Amino acid sequence: MKTYLSIAVGTVLAFFLGWIWYGMLFQAQWMSAAGLKAEDVGSDMEIGGMIVPLLAWLVTAGCFHCIAHMANVSALAGNVKLAVLCWLGFAMPAVVFSTYFQMLGGSLYWIDGLYLLCGALLIALARTFIRR
Question: Does the pLDDT of residue 46 top 80, yes or no?
Answer without folding.
Answer: no
